[in-house]
Amino acid sequence: MPQTLYDKLWISHLVRQEDDGTALLYVDRHLVHEVTSPQAYEGLKLAGRGVWRADSIVATADHNTPTRDWERGIEDPVSRLQVETLDANIRAHGAAAYFPFRDPREGIVHVIGPEHGATLPGMTVVCGDSHTSTHGAFGCLAFGIGTSEVEHVLATQCLLSRKAKNMRVRIEGSAGPCVSAKDIVLALIGRIGTAGGTGCAIEFAGSAIRALSMEGRMTVCNMAIEAGARAGMVAVDDRTVEYLRGRPLAPRGELWERAVAHWRTLVSDEGATFDRVVELDAGSIAPQVTWGTSPEMVASVEGAVPDPAREADSTRREGIERALQYMGLQPGMPITAIRFDKVFIGSCTNSRIEDLRAAAAVVRGRRVDPGIRQALVVPGSGLVKRQAEAEGLDRIFVAAGFEWREPGCSMCLGMNADRLEPGERCASTSNRNFEGRQGAGGRTHLMSPQMAAAAAIAGRVVDVRRML
Amino acid sequence: MEKFTRHVGLVAPIARNNVDTDAIIPKQFLKSIRRTGFGPYLFDEWRYLDRGEPGQDCAARPLNPEFVLNQPRYRGASILLTGKNFGCGSSREHAPWALLDYGVRALVGKSFADIFFNNCFKNGLLPIRLPQAEIDALFADVAARPGYRLMIDLEAQTVARPDGRAIPFEIEPYRKHCLIEGLDDIGLTLRHRDQIAEFEARRRLEQPWNFSR
Ligand code: SF4
After folding, report:
1. Does B14 or B187 have the greater pLDDT score?
2. CA B76, CA A238: separation in Å to the nearest integer?
3. Chain B nearest C-alpha distance from A395 (Å)
4. Is the pLDDT score of A51 beyond 80?
5. B64 Cα to chain A: minimum distance (Å)
6. Of the four, A154, A352, B42, B81, which is 20 to 30 A from A382 by CA?
7. Is A409's C-beta closer than 6 angstroms to any atom of ligand 1?
8. Residue B213 has pLDDT above 70, yes or no
9. Are strands A342-345 and A374-377 parallel, antiparallel or unpaired?
10. How would you class A159 by CB atoms within 10 Å of its CB: exposed for 0-12, middle for 13-18, buried for 19 or more?
11. Average pLDDT over residues A233-259
């Protein structure tokens, strides 16, 4: 019977299955960071258990770490303790690779995994972080887990799971100029909603997905979780293989050839059936901007903030009203009338080299609007940062008035010092616009790196297509 | 993990869809390296008028009188009635930890986000999905009748209303078993350690590149 990519990945990791469908799934790669792992290691210790396979682990500190003055260390004692706890746990139990705070290769866990070839096609990749779906871009089964599950994987190298439904999102056609992977995935979420993929593993397919770089595919898979799906994935093709060639943890020599031959089979078979199919025309997508407090509350840059009075469904109407109140927006106002206090270019959605290049192309030779209090560029990893510096992107940003920072999660969730103050409005390339996500009372508008760069220059939402 | 068999408790309504994990427990509290002590910060931004910081004495903080859990009639609630897609957002297990630490033992709602749903079971918190019509009726009843309590019987898989009518719910047998017995997943899985080792050895042979280093 023809199989989907997800079916193949699932079956090849099945250690055993109970009659009720509960499956024991083998885990190839376990990514670990400081926030969701301390309680797991502690649980292990309390139960007198060890780590099953330390060389499956790749770890880094990213969520809590400051993005400047690294020589001063971590000033917040609570954050410091968490990072030190990770250090101690990795020292005690081991890992295939560890990029601690201040290591030149430190970075956001979802950026460094692919960068080091720790994420390979056909693997199961898990991490105590919901945006683990990012790694699905490589034709692997990648999803976020909770801390108890982190402990379970540490102790058993397996995860208890149930098979999800197969969903295919097919995006055909070619995206217009300045319409990026971010716009595609925001438009999709706007269409199917944040629960649209619940219970599903989404395979992103179609000519518009094939045309994306690996960076772009990661951006799309990253936000699969925002569409409610635990996993997103893209079939393996030449781009996947080329990206991985020569990466530190990728196979070499004869093993590389064997691996590639296997990876080529990681596509959905002709005639495989999907439980749900959604189709989108890339050509009809304009740059997207969220106006509300959920990623599904999104509009085209040419559009307007919705008017709750025109919503028939009462729950939805109240949802819109509440969001507009929190966001401090007027019903019906044009999206381009939204003005910002801050701009954040970063996060595991959009902090890779391609994102920084796209943003820099908009910024080059221009100045950040004086109304913008702070404009941050936070590269996804130390390697991205150095690559960008080698290309002179940092100088473009700094000359325009941006701050060029050290890598980490930063203002994506504001666990470190980078955050919004109550009422501040931010153009952000991250993935969540929930109430308080970037700081209590902060207001987040999600958009692509190019759109965020344009917003910094104009001080408000502008259609970046008019600027290039 | 605490066993869950039967639970009778006061119900409080959280009448919003897409309640995300940032709302359940804001990120500044995720810096703790412990599993307990999150209860005072549950729904922190909705519950208090000031901005919460870890380690703060919450007894002295100004409460938001409008927030449902601050209303006297819902004090001591151990069952939350929830809308659609409750627990969406991050994978943080601090969300169920905070709910449990506050005293919540069960959630009755339209739907839950995947990872959150999973995390609840790992901690002895029971999330129950009911059809839209039942949830709507429960919201109406809770609003109309102070002191509204439900009885959850996991063995029988029912939620009994005060009028005696029992609403059946579904739960996977494995999860039910673990909750009733208070069983630790890891211990159960390790009973299959030989099978895991065998699988691993075969995989190492067939696809050695997955074991680089
Ligand atoms: S960048 Fe944001 S979404 Fe990504 S892992 Fe860090 S906190 Fe999570």
Report:
1. B14
2. 59
3. 33
4. yes
5. 15
6. A154
7. yes
8. no
9. parallel
10. buried
11. 97
Closest atom of ligand 1 to CA, residue A413: 7
Q: Give yes or no for a contact between A464 and A450, defined as CB atoms under 8 angstroms apart.
A: yes
Joined tokens for residue B59: 């007894």
Distance A341 CA to ligand 1 centre (A): 22
At residue B53, the pLDDT reads 87
Residue in B61, B91, B120, B174 to test binding to A, most A beta-carbons within 10 Å: B91
Please indicate whether, in this complex, the C-beta atoms of A199 and B114 are within 8 angstroms of each other.
Answer: yes
The shortest C-alpha distance from A379 to chain B (Å) reads: 21
Interface of B with A in 66-85 (CB under 8 A): 83-85
Mode of pairing for the β-strands spanning A23-26 and A14-17: antiparallel
CA distance A129 to A147: 9
Interface contact flag, A149 B122, Cβ < 8 Å: yes
pLDDT at residue B212 above 80? no
Predicted TM-score of the model (pTM): 0.91
Q: Residue B3's Cα: distance from chain center in Å?
A: 14
Contact: A315, B27; criterion CB under 8 Å: no
ipTM score for this prediction: 0.94
Nearest to A405 by CA among A63, A65, A61, A67: A67
Domain range summary for chain B, segments of one domain joined by +: 6-182
In the sheet with A141-144, reading across from the earlier edge strand, the strands are A97-99, A57-60, A29-32, A124-127, A141-144
**What residue type is assigned to position B64 of the chain?**
N
Q: Which of A98, A389, A141 is nearest to A249 (CA)?
A: A98
Per the structure block, which two tokens stand in for A103? 């290591």
For domain B6-182, give the CATH number: 3.20.19.10
Using alpha carbons, select from A326, A123, A39, A389 the residue that is nearest to residue B122.
A39
CB within 8 A of A12, min separation 6: which ones?
Answer: A122
Structure tokens at A265: 């089979």
Say yes or no for a CB contact (<8 Å) between A228 and B209.
no
Query: Are residues A156 and B190 in contact, defined by beta-carbon separation less than 8 angstroms?
Result: yes
Between the alpha carbon of residue A71 and those of residues A30, A75, A103, A406, the distances in Å are 29, 11, 12, 11
Q: Which run of H or E residues covers position A161?
A: strand A158-161
Q: Which of B45, B30, B47, B159 is nearest to B95 (CA)?
A: B30
Q: pLDDT band for B24, please (50, 70, 90 cuts).
A: very high
Whether chain A has a CB inside 8 Å of the CB on B191: the answer is no
- Ligand 1 centroid to Cα of residue A410, in Å, is 8
Checking if the pLDDT of B112 tops 80, the result is yes
Contacts of A72 (CB under 8 A, 6+ apart): A66
* Structural tokens at position A223: 């936000």
For B61-111, the pLDDT digits (tens) are 999 999 999 999 999 999 999 999 999 988 889 999 999 999 999 999 999
Q: Do A228 and B88 touch (CB under 8 A)?
A: yes
Number of residues that make up chain A: 468
Nearest to A26 by CA among A47, A52, A59, A50: A52
**Ligand 1 atom with the shortest distance to the CA of A351:** 1
pLDDT bucket at A33, cuts 50 / 70 / 90: very high
